[in-house]
Write a structure and sequence with these properties.
It contains ten helices and no strands. It has helices at residues 2-18, 26-33, 38-58, 68-89, 94-114, 134-155, 160-169, 175-196, 206-226, 232-256. Helix 2 packs across helix 3 (38-58).
Amino acid sequence: MILAGVFGLVVGAALGLLGAGGSILAVPALVYGVGQPVAAALFGSLLVVAVSAAGGLAARLRSGVIRWPVALVFGAAGAPTAFAGTALGRLFADRWLLVAFSVLMVVVAIRMLRGNPEEATGGACRTGDGRVDWRSCLPRAIAAGAGVGLLTGLFGVGGGFVIVPALILLLGLTAAEAVATSLVIVTINSLAGLVAHAAAAASVDYGVIGVFAGTALLASLVAGRFADRLSARALRRGFAYLILAVAAGVAAAALFAPAALGGTTG
């Protein structure tokens, strides 16, 4: 329970401060830190992500920077592919799913280290008055949303690490708009993923998940209020190095100690 609370604080704080990336630690924390089976960890991760993203969103509801039409387009595209990702994940043994997950973690960390998407300049899909030009950008939004949904179903992640740069680079949203809007999309995708992973609900330790989700929610609410006062660049770099370390541990454990998963290892 103590470990669940500690990991929940880390995931919630990352989501609240960065609007992305925190969920990448939820699955390995639940599998190796708390001892949950992989299927239960995927379900639990989505529950934690949904709760903490909703908490971060609540802190920004009055900010006026959430772009609801964009969020709904991304969410509508991602919800169906979350089911496809879940079905795809069932084709792989747990150990190989976790190896693939560790590769995803490395990709996320490298992206964080190579640059700050919030400093990029999009705007290709913005009209002169600042609105999104849906005629030219709807296909991009649908494709990006579908890709994020696939990752949500396959790995139990919210996908904010893809959504934030996509909103900035493809649709030209500002940094504040992208972070706030991503939390809406993450919430929608996570709820769809929960439905897709419902078969694992019976194997979840809800006491552990409740502590994890509760602390993540509190951390997300508090961190969301300080997001504009701290150096996002320094936070992002530190978090990226943490992700790389965890990725190495996940890959090593999955390859060399598969019995620790307690499930199908192939």
